[in-house]
């Protein structure tokens, strides 16, 4: 598959959705920075959802949980192969952008830990990834996006897997999201000296739409290259989910003492 610039895909989403939905979907799907004039960064930080605002290993793990729920009933390895193939195609398509590479590595490690419940192997792989990153991309170590992705992946490895496969997709999504939140909250506090007390609730309310949103963003960007009209059904569903996501974020701001700053 030919390697494209990530802007080709993000521009399709920009023409398919209005603001701020387009910027938010580009952030969740491709790790594109959301423009500061939307003031969404501060809102998501206060609501404890900052780790899902950009493409991360936890987002890909949530996508993997959805695919596992859809295909895992046939055979577990099928779900893993489908998800990893999607991650590879996705990474090649958008041109090996740094946020995508980070998310792909972290997401794959998280996925294997969740599906096969091999925590020791996953932790070793995550540690090895950190060493390789320190050697070849030392600037990433101080990046807040890398640390959030690394912390979320560690949380998912330790607490996101289960011995028994849940009957429904939502409990799996919920467990993964809360596990990621457990390890990203201290990082946010360390960098910003702020903590969201409402984050467990907001993560419960939105975790189940992150995987579908990533899939919808990818479908919009691909089908939009063929013909803009093909994006309409995907864009309508994505807009509804994003509107719900922003509703939860705005609602969380109304809760007294939900956010503390030190």
What does this structure look like?
The protein is mainly α. Strands 1-2 form a two-stranded antiparallel sheet. The relative contact order is 0.17. The radius of gyration is 17 Å and the shape is globular. It has 12 helices and 2 strands; from the N terminus they run ααααααααααβααβ. The chain has helices at 6-16, 21-30, 40-47, 50-53, 57-71, 76-93, 98-116, 119-136, 144-159, 169-192, 199-226, 232-252; strands at 194-196, 259-261. Helices cover 73% and strands 2% of the residues.
Can you lay out the helices and strands and say which pair or pack?
Blueprint: H1 6-16, H2 21-30, H3 40-47, H4 50-53, H5 57-71, H6 76-93, H7 98-116, H8 119-136, H9 144-159, H10 169-192, E1 194-196, H11 199-226, H12 232-252, E2 259-261
Antiparallel strand pairs: 1-2
Helix pairs in contact: 1-2, 1-11, 2-11, 5-6, 5-7, 5-10, 5-11, 6-7, 7-8, 7-9, 8-9, 9-10, 10-11, 11-12
Q: Tell me, rounded to a whole number, the average pLDDT.
A: 78
How many β-strand runs? 2
Shape category: globular
Class by SSE composition: mainly alpha
Main-sheet strand order equals 1-2
Please state the CA-atom Rg, rounded to the nearest Å: 17 Å
Oligomerization category of the chains in this entry: single chain
First-residue to last-residue Cα separation:
49 Å
Number of helical elements = 12
């Amino acid at each position: 598959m030919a390697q494209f610039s990530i802007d080709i895909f993000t521009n399709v989403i920009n023409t398919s959705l209005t603001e701020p939905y387009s910027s938010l979907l580009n952030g969740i799907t491709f790790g594109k920075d959301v423009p500061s004039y939307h003031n969404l960064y501060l809102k998501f930080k206060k609501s404890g959802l900052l780790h899902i605002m950009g493409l991360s290993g936890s987002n890909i793990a949530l996508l993997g949980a959805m695919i596992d729920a859809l295909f895992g009933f046939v055979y577990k390895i099928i779900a893993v192969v489908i998800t990893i193939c999607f991650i590879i195609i996705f990474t090649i398509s958008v041109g090996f952008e740094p946020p995508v590479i980070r998310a792909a590595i972290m997401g794959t490690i998280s996925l294997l830990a969740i599906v096969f419940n091999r925590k020791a192997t996953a932790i070793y792989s995550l540690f090895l990834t950190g060493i390789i990153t320190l050697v070849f991309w030392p600037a990433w170590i101080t990046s807040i996006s890398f640390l959030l992705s690394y912390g979320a992946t560690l949380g998912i490895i330790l607490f996101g897997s289960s011995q028994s496969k849940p009957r429904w997709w939502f409990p799996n999504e919920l467990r993964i999201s809360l596990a990621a939140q457990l390890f990203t909250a201290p990082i946010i506090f360390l960098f910003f000296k702020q903590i969201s007390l409402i984050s467990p609730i907001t993560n419960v309310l939105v975790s189940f739409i992150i995987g579908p949103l990533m899939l919808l963003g990818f479908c919009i960007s691909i089908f939009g290259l063929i013909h803009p009209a093909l994006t309409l059904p995907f864009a309508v569903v994505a807009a509804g989910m994003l509107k719900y996501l922003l509703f939860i974020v705005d609602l969380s701001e109304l809760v007294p003492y939900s956010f503390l700053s030190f």
